[in-house]
C-alpha cells in the first residue's frame, strides 16, 4: 500500500494478470503481483519485488513460453533492466533477467512482436556525467516554458540537460531493441537507433511478422511526433533491424 507512482499490467495466460507498481512512498520500489482472474473476481496470489527504484515501467505478455516481460529504469542508474516472469502454481517467479543498453535510459515502452519476442524502445541519453542528467520528469516542459532563464539556480541543478548547460554532451537517442524470451532466460538482441534527439512517449505496433511502426515525440524538435518503420524483427543478428530515415510509408518496407 502507498502512493502508486507508475504502473504496468499484462495478462499471463487466460487465468492470470500481472500488475506491477512503483510505490512513491516506498522510494519507488516496484513490485509485481500475480492476480488470479475468475469471472469478475481478481485475487491477489503472490508478489515479487523487481526493483528498488523505478521511474519508468512497461510490461507485455508473451504466449510461448507463457511469460510477462517487465522492463524498468530510473533517472539515476545506467541502463534499463528487464525481467521475465512466470506463474508457478500460485507463485509469481522470475525466469530470467537482462540489462539492456549501456547509457542512462528513460521513457521505455514494450510491445510484443511474436509469441517469444518483444520490442523495447527507449531513450538513451548521450554520454552525460551524473551531474548532467535531468532529475525531474517535468524538466523539458519547464525548459520550454522559459524556466531556465527565469529560475536558473533551481533549473541548472535539477534540469541541466534540458537547460543545455552540459554543452559537451552527446545527443540523446531513441533506440529499439528486440528481446527474446525462452523457458529459462531473456536476451537482448538486435538494436536500432530510430531518432537522434530527446525521444519520449513511445508507442509501437507490429504491422507484419517482421516489421513494426514505432512512433514517439521528439522534444529536441518542439515535441514533433515522428514515426519510423523498424524491420528485421525475426532475425537474431545485430544490425539487422533498421529504421527509415524519413516518412513511415510503404517505401520504407523492404
Ligand atoms: C498480495 O499478496 C502478497 C503475497 O501473498 C502479499 O505480500 C501482498 O501484501 C498482498 N498485497 C495486498 C495489497 O494484499
Ligand atoms: C538475474 O539472473 C541471474 C541468473 O541468470 C541470477 O543469478 C540473478 O540473481 C538475477 N538477478 C536479479 C536481479 O534477479
Ligand atoms: C512526408 O510525408 C508528408 C505528407 O505525405 C510530405 O508532405 C513530406 O514531403 C514527406 N517527407 C519526405 C521527406 O518525403
Automatic annotation (TrEMBL):
Secretion signal, residue range per the UniProt entry: 1-20
Gene3D superfamilies listed in its UniProt record: 1.10.10.1940
Top-rank taxon, per record: Eukaryota
UniProt keywords, alphabetically: Signal
InterPro entries in alphabetical order: ShKT_dom (IPR003582)
Classification via Pfam families: ShK
Residue stretches making up the ShKT domain: 132-166
PROSITE patterns to which the protein is assigned, alphabetical: SHKT (PS51670)
Protein name: MIR1 protein
Amino acid at each position: 500500500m502507498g502512493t502508486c507512482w507508475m504502473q504496468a499490467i499484462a495478462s499471463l495466460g487466460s487465468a492470470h494478470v500481472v500488475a506491477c507498481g512503483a510505490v512513491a512512498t516506498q522510494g519507488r520500489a516496484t513490485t509485481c503481483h500475480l492476480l488470479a482472474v475468475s469471472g469478475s473476481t481478481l485475487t491477489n496470489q503472490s508478489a515479487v519485488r523487481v526493483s528498488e527504484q523505478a521511474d519508468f515501467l512497461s510490461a507485455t505478455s508473451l504466449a510461448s513460453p507463457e511469460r510477462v516481460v517487465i522492463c524498468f529504469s530510473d533517472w539515476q542508474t545506467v541502463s534499463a533492466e528487464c525481467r521475465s516472469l512466470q506463474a508457478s502454481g500460485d507463485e509469481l517467479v522470475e525466469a530470467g533477467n537482462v540489462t539492456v543498453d549501456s547509457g542512462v535510459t528513460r521513457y521505455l515502452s514494450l510491445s510484443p512482436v511474436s509469441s517469444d519476442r518483444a520490442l523495447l524502445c527507449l531513450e538513451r541519453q548521450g554520454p552525460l556525467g551524473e551531474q548532467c542528467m535531468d532529475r525531474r520528469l517535468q524538466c523539458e516542459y519547464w525548459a520550454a516554458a522559459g524556466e531556465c532563464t527565469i529560475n536558473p539556480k533551481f533549473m541548472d541543478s535539477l534540469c541541466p540537460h534540458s537547460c543545455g548547460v552540459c554543452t559537451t554532451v552527446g545527443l540523446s537517442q531513441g533506440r529499439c531493441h528486440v528481446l527474446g524470451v525462452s523457458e529459462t532466460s531473456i536476451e537482448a538482441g538486435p538494436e536500432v537507433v530510430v531518432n537522434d534527439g530527446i525521444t519520449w512517449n513511445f508507442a509501437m505496433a507490429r504491422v507484419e511478422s517482421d516489421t513494426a511502426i514505432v512512433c514517439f515525440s521528439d522534444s529536441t524538435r518542439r515535441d514533433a511526433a515522428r514515426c519510423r518503420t523498424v524491420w528485421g524483427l525475426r532475425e537474431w543478428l545485430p544490425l539487422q533491424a533498421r529504421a527509415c530515415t524519413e516518412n513511415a510509408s510503404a517505401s520504407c518496407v523492404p
